[in-house]
Queue: 4 jobs
Job 1
Amino acid sequence: MGLVLIGYLKGTVIETREGSVLLDVGGIGYIVEIPSNALRDLPPSGNEIKLYTEMIIRDDRMNLYGFLDSESLMVFKVLLEVSGVGPRLAMNILSVLNPDDLISDISKAETARIRSVHGVGKKTAARICVDLKEKASKILVQKGDRMSTRDGAQVAMHEGSQAFEDAVSALVNLGYRPEKAKRVISEILQEGSNVEIHELIKRGLGRLSGVR
């Protein structure tokens, strides 16, 4: 889908447009699409900025997507790994949620703010949380977040434990009734209590969706 040809651009802001900025880099004008919240943070025309970029080539078009920091670019790339999420939708998401809030919501399977983004429905929000939960947790670990689970760690869980409650809460946030979520998580734990929490949530979601 995509090919990275330009890691970043450093140049002078010529003008800003809706959803993009025209950047002069060595006498060449690059049109770079950026999230709307980043657009608000750009300096006035004539000032120099650095944008971390991803070039995506599709058919006969080449689009440059730019971000003010490398973390935003990384989250953009991660979003593109989700089936049904293309560059435009990923940019919409990052226009509404900053990377920290988005990663936090994904790690907790909280879909409310993600669903508020134009073009993101309930199913897409749930898919983002399920597909990216493990990566989100790893990112939080790397940032030293106390709420994250340790990367790759398996924890012994039982009904009433914090891990049990977190798994149930994640399923409830995805739209399932608390009693059903508790029953399914309990059933899975009875089969074996040593399991990573993201896998526990994925199994629970599969059973609640009728897929075992």
Job 2
Amino acid sequence: MAIKSHLRNNNPVVLAVSTNDGLSGSAENIGKLLNRNNYFFVPFKQDNPITKPRSLVADFKYLIPTIEKALDREQIEPILL
């Protein structure tokens, strides 16, 4: 409900992806959110390509820069590290 209210007021939503199926089951949903307005992602990378081949994890050193850019309605680049 909080995000719906946030979006209704045209405010940015910052997401930090950390998931074990980001390159399989969740990939479609992540892709949909990447194409929507007001959603901004903390850059993320593959967690461990050998032991977790479908896992993604946000790089939290980019959290503050992502928030700053989101307030200016810009996505920090690159999004996939």
Job 3
Amino acid sequence: MKHFSIFVFLLIFTHTAFAQINAITETGDKVILYDNNTWAYAAPDTTETDTILVNPMVFTKNEKADFLLKSTKTDSGIWLNSKEWKFEKSKINPQAEYQILHESGNIYTLLITEEIEIPLTTLGDVVIENTRAMADEFTLIHKEFRTVNGLEVLQLEFDAKVQGMNFTYFGYYFSNENGTTQVLSYTAEKLFDKYKDKCEELLNGLTKTK
């Protein structure tokens, strides 16, 4: 019950972090309007693609990953080790297709898909700015481009404090003409070093299905 309660809370937070309306004020400032009636200035337009590190390593799915969980909205999916990970259709977060739970009960993952192409740098900026606006504290730990099973993805790692609880998030973001996929793993900040390899192992299963 304890793990389930935390899972529910994190799902609600993650959904809220992505809920937004982009708008322009009378003076021309770009702002983001959130469902909780708060707002924040949008990130300025930049050519951030040139400044994001590119990891030269090639990442591939783990040899023990034996099940391909396919999106019904995009041409993407994720390979997982069915002995360690359990999944179900998302019941709480309407933006996520699936919620995935590690056997330890301490790592939670969302597979979020949309039938629209979004530039990776734009997607990364939205994730960062929305989470920063919703969290009590936010720290971006790392950001880079990776090649994962032949796909160019954006990898983000960040800490967020929400209602006094500290979490670390580790995500892969991919987009093409068939839609956008976000795979986001998270756990308590104090447990992240212990479970980082497992998070990364799961995310390295991200692949195209067509």
Job 4
Amino acid sequence: MSEPLLRIHNHHVVECGDPPIINGDDPDLYLGYFENPYGEQWVFAYHRKTHRSELRGGDIGWNTVHAVVDGRAAGLILGGEEAAWLQACWRAATGRR
């Protein structure tokens, strides 16, 4: 198949940096995307073999990476909907609560 399943445009200003380029061809990589009603975008990535997880968001600067442990991003306060989404991504990616 030559066409991507999903194409997402950056809604953030240039000062937020360049959004991450993520290669979804790795079968061990779980990806999650969230956008709230204000256009704030988040990307969650979890690699099943390395158990490495990260969260990036336009409002915090796309190049800022927050590690995700047990479904929570250290040092980051998320809104209720964002936190619920991140927990859902964590459960889907890891099978753990």
